[in-house]
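Records of this kind hold a single protein each, on a pair of labelled lines. Below, a sample record shows both lines together.
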Amino acid sequence: MHYGQTKIVTSQDAVELGKRAAQDVAAVIRRLLAERDQVRIIFAAGESQMTFLDALALEPDIEWQKVVCFNMDDFWEPRMDRQFSCGYQTQVQLYDKVHPKAFHLVDFKAADPHREADRFSDLIRQAETIDILCQGIGTSGHLAMNEPGITHFDDPQLVRVVDLVEQSKRQLIEDPNFKRLGYIPDKGITMTIPAMLQARHVFTMVPLALKRDILKKVFSAQAPDEQLPATVIHSVHGCLYVDRDSCPGNVQALAGITT
């Protein structure tokens, strides 16, 4: 089964999904490192990425000392404790375990979010190429923090300051990584769609039942639509990982998706 140019990979549950995605991402990392001295990867945070990040940290024979990592986004909230930032999750789950050559986080406490967006943009430009993108899809249909109504697939900026929509806040307030914070910040700093999709290998991990409704909307779209940013993967060669909880039942029946 494909959604446009993106292959759909199904799993029984979130744990199996994380392992399968990690195996596929690890295989690409190993292959690229056999050809060159450095690989650059964009990572996401959030509940949907937890089993994937845990599994990737256990993958053997990856020369992480040759890998440079970028987080795709973070909140902007100077009052917030670090443990609630997106960067903290990826650092604890992955970077502190595998010790990559470098990892770049968005400074969620930056005095000026626009200057921080400019700083992060410069890091991406200096990287020249991004090899791998590992992302999720939010219940609003966002990719990173590129929300419906504010996203442009041809955005000239690499990183921008954005307002989170209410649906994204509702999702995140129940996320185990952020629930104890008690609120979700109003603003974020995010890579734009063009910045992320410069990656040559795109992996999208979407487990869990709370993602079923948005996947139904995505699968119903026959072309990329900026009002539903996740539909951009329709025109992207990559892999979309779903599990039995997240994959809409009608899509399984109509498209013959099996587990």
User: Anything to note?
Assistant: The mean pLDDT is 92. The chain has eight helices and eleven strands.
